Amino acid sequence: MGLLQGLLRVRKLLLVVCVPLLLLPLPVLHPSSEASCAYVLIVTAVYWVSEAVPLGAAALVPAFLYPFFGVLRSNEVAAEYFKNTTLLLVGVICVAAAVEKWNLHKRIALRMVLMAGAKPGMLLLCFMCCTTLLSMWLSNTSTTAMVMPIVEAVLQELVSAEDEQLVAGNSNTEEAEPISLDVKNSQPSLELIFVNEDRSNADLTTLMHNE
Questions:
Q1: What would the pLDDT profile of 107-117 be if each residue is shown by its tens digit?
Q2: How does DSSP assign 96-153, residue by residue?
């Protein structure tokens, strides 16, 4: 049991070391570019699925092993990593992070709520128009990365507005609640006091007549 727990603790290290060694006969026994490429892909897939290393490090495994096994040259591998689409996506993510850091998305969301109101249909139409315009110049993934912070800000504004309305409605209800005259208090009313006094006086008069 202790050995099994120890293996579980170091399972990531075992995967990092043992998987390349166990698959090493594939490029050694079949010295071809196809076998070497399959070896690199299998090692990368195991690292990626098991998360033995971070996903970014697993994605960089082919950048080192392809030139090492002669599958591709370094400049060819680097060109695959730095395509225009990839750089555009990275740039858009940086812009979205900057927008979220300086709360520009909240300002845009507040302006949209003021213009379109709290109607879901109008808000959806505004988002569709903005996304359509951005999609003409950016990829779908980049557009989603830019619009998501604005959508989250709009949802937060709507939720906070509903909470404020509920709190204001409860306070107004408590202030405007009339005092009910039908409430039965523990103290006796004046009518009951007068009735009891009349009864006591009548009893006293009867007693005096009897005497």
A1: 777 777 777 77
A2: HHHHHHTTHHHHHHHHHHHHHTT-HHHHHHHHHHHHHHHHTTS-HHHHHHHHHHHHHH
The arithmetic mean of pLDDT across residues 173-187, rounded, is 50
Look at residue 22 and give its three-state secondary structure. Answer: helix
Tokens encoding 96: 């979205």
The answer to whether residue 205 scores a pLDDT higher than 60 is no
| 20-45-68 Cα angle (round to 5) | 50
Name 179's Cβ contacts closer than 8 Å, sequence gap at least 6. Answer: none
- Token reading at 167: 């709190």
* The two three-digit tokens of residue 69, written as one number: 């096994």
Cβ neighbours for 85, distance < 8 A, ≥ 6 positions apart: 139
Give the global pTM. 0.50
- Alpha-carbon Rg for the chain, nearest whole angstrom, is 39
